Request: fold
Amino acid sequence: MVVSFEGCTRIGLAVAIGIATLSNVTVYAQEKRAIKIGLMLPYKGVYALPTESIDRGFQLALEEFGNKANGHPVEIVRADDELTPNVGVQKFNKFVQSDKVDLVAGVVGSNVGIAISELADKNKMPMVFVNAFADEITGKFCSPYIARTSFSANAFEYASGKYWASKGIKTAVTMGPDYSAGRAFIGGFRRGFEDNGGKVIEELWTPFQKTKDYSAALTQAANSGAQIIYAFYAGAEAIQVVKQHADFGLRSKIPLIGDHWVYDEALWPALGDLALNAQHVATHYPGIQSEANEKFVKAYAARYKQTPDVSAELGYDNGKAIMLTLESLGGQMPEDRTKFISTMRDLTFDAPRGKIKFNAQNSALLEKVYVIEIVKGPDGTLQRKSLDEFPGAGDLPGCTKSF
Amino acid sequence: MQIFLIQLLNGVQLSMLVFLLAVGLTLIFGLMNILNLAHGAFFTMGAYFGLVVANKTGSFWLALLIGPLLPFVAGMLLQFFVLQPLAQRGRSTHLDLALLTFGLLFATAGAVEYIYGSAFHSIGTPDLLKGRVALLGIEFPLYRLFIIAVGIAIAAALVLVIDRTLVGATLRAGVDNREMVTALGININVLFALVFGFGSALAGFAGIVSAPIMSIYSNMGIGIVVTTFVVVVVGGLGNLKGSFYAALIVGVTDTLAQAYLPEAELFAIYAMLIAVMIFRPQGLFGAAGRVA
Amino acid sequence: MSTDFILTRDKRVGALKRLPVPALGRAYAALFGPFAVLLCALPFFASGYVVTLAVEVMIAGVFASGINLLTGYTGLVSLGQAMFLGFGGYGIAIGTALLGWPLWVSAPVTLVLVAVIAAAIGAICTRTRGVEFLLITLAFSQMFYGAAIKLRWTNGSDGMTGIPRPDLSLLGLNADNPTAFYYYVLSVAALALLMLWRIVTSPFGSVLVGIRENERRMTSMGYAVANYKIGSFALAAVTCAVAGILQSQYTYFVNPDAMSWQMSGEGVLMVIIGGANVILGPLVGAAVFVVVKQALSMITEEYNLFFGIFFMLVVAFFRGGVLGAISKLIGKRHERA
Reply:
């Protein structure tokens, strides 16, 4: 009995591809074609908490413009990059080829950002990063198709290192997740700290997304003899580090100091009293007295029944920068993508956190850094109190292209 | 030196957690010849059920008591209604069962995520175990000492049961010679299901015990199951006492690597596993035969 | 422990491949023609997205074919083949980005190195069998996975970017163009599958099947069974590395996740879907897997749930795979006729 199943193989493949083709047919029936924004964020996993805020802030910005730019309706297509570069690459390809988006926004993890920067460049697809703070994103991997609406790790952390050195801290041990953003943040702190007389005794790195028990690293840190632990962690990892640091009784022995992600407002319910009296640097807090901020905090509270945290503000900036760019492009989007990023670079606007301008590498600059203490407000809830403010540092050089 | 001892304690604490998982896995393998890759799923299941109980009652102790029941029942059902019939129908070999449970591991993680989302949860440390003990000039969290105590207690209880009781004798006989136990008139399928359920319950128990430190999240079982395999193989497949010593070796190696040789932390235990498989394939503690 | 593990109990399938009958050859050619035309013409009528999917299917198909040589033909089930996927990607990344070698040097050097390393790993792993083989391959891949996450000069868990696609300017093409890249992948995949087909239809392939069916008999017949197993392990690894090179060129990127055990599991799943030990089975398995995965991702984000359920169902009920099922169907019809 001879059977030819190779033939069936091929028929099977053809059928499979056929099905895929059919599922891909979309019909547009609008008069003015919608502008599609692909919003890529890690909705699941260790950064799920800040991500939810980013998404809310982003939506709020679009709603402020009535979800329309020059009469074109603006649609969001969401994708979850799972904070995993491979997945990010797949989702980016899906955005480009299947969803046919006009630009891509979002991206929290620098690891994902680095992986897709090359794709954005090759596909000539505007990519507007919301976080992806690693300096390399707008340095080594810079491209005329890539911009970042937040700030670079160096701008934030160099300033932070300088501040803590000026407060009489002489020695520190650092802890951070071992990936591009962790390295960039801790590196920025170290430069700022050591340029101003401090000394980093030891750098401790924990495998990103793999570490749940920080006892080994915390024990090493406690024994380093440094005055403080300076840490960069976010989301679930931040909760674990802060809790375990307290479990080992290190709060009085060697304080854990970090930035607004370690003591992120989104984590307060989980941290409880551990957040109280923590001091950290931040790029935004709800109490900033400016028209843009008051309007934003009010609108956010009305829409989501809560005060915005740092991530919500960053999401809002991302959405707003995109909408303003779409408007100033006139009717050119979605037909002409090439001018999108260069138009955005010329943009200046008042964001809740301060004035946003872009540098030659398409990275937004950090106008101000705030020093915050978390205190109990009159109603017994935790609040952010500003102790001090100073300008952000500049970006690291590294972009060799000119555009 | 003090710090080294503290790191050792950290390592022992990790060891005891992994031991709770390894016991079930090694017993199941010893008795039923099933490489149960889904063992991590029961770890997750116990943790989430414990979380539900803790949220309802506010009691860590109730969670610890009731939480393992779900993995116990689920494990029994899996063995009795799925794995056993498949094996008996000659439908699947041991490898097929391993692959089937591989699928189950991911399906459970996905199902948990579907129901509970991907957020990280925690069960608070019980009041009784909050605080620290001054030890060797440094403070060590009481709860971590509790984990070490629990691990040792369970190991001791298991050794007593297996060495001194009728149930233990039956189990030992079952590992050595399955047919003989059947000949004694014991319903081997029920015994298998019970052991499978018990092993799963211990995994679930481990999930709850670890919750105050390590968080509860949907993929929690996928990573830890690989570490558990290292323990089970190093200790000798089916060797219960071996798995205790192996858990100590693996946990301490992993922690010390994190502290003193971070470059090697993610592969030290696998390198050790490979070395053991090359030079002592029966496991470090495996004598000629398996000793359950 | 017993080791008589056979993925497909339909032994005719394995036997048929080694004894092509002229009639089959004709039927084969008749169907192959249109299919080849379809594949070559795909970019002319299909949307860009379908072309991309086809690229993913072909890359996954090559990966699964490598696993199939080991699992389907030799009867060794590995949960660590993704390490060679990673070796392929890292090989050309290190060669081109760190050492500055051109791609046409990096790629062959990578494949030769993978063959050598795989032979060494295979010499260790193939001393075990059954679940122990599965565990030791898993241990090896986890070890390299962990090392890659920690290794600073390959950027740790971030991985390496800027992996070059081949320079096709001699043909007047730019490989950054999806269509040009499609033809590049099609040619490499066709070449890889052709070589695999030559291998499994050769006497060497017959020995592998013989080992799977009855290792003791092959030993007593005087075959150096150990060497054959190591050989098949190395060839499988090289095939997986080819897929790894293509994958990293497709995404311009490689990172340690390429070596995760879930990736290995996906490969095994594709082999089982397509029907182990049928030469084109893995390609069908890859097609089913990639299309189902894409379709699912449009409906739900719960990928793990469906991956797991899919995996269980396939293992429990769908033995012999899609091709096995189809061949059984056709077989029955012919018997009735």
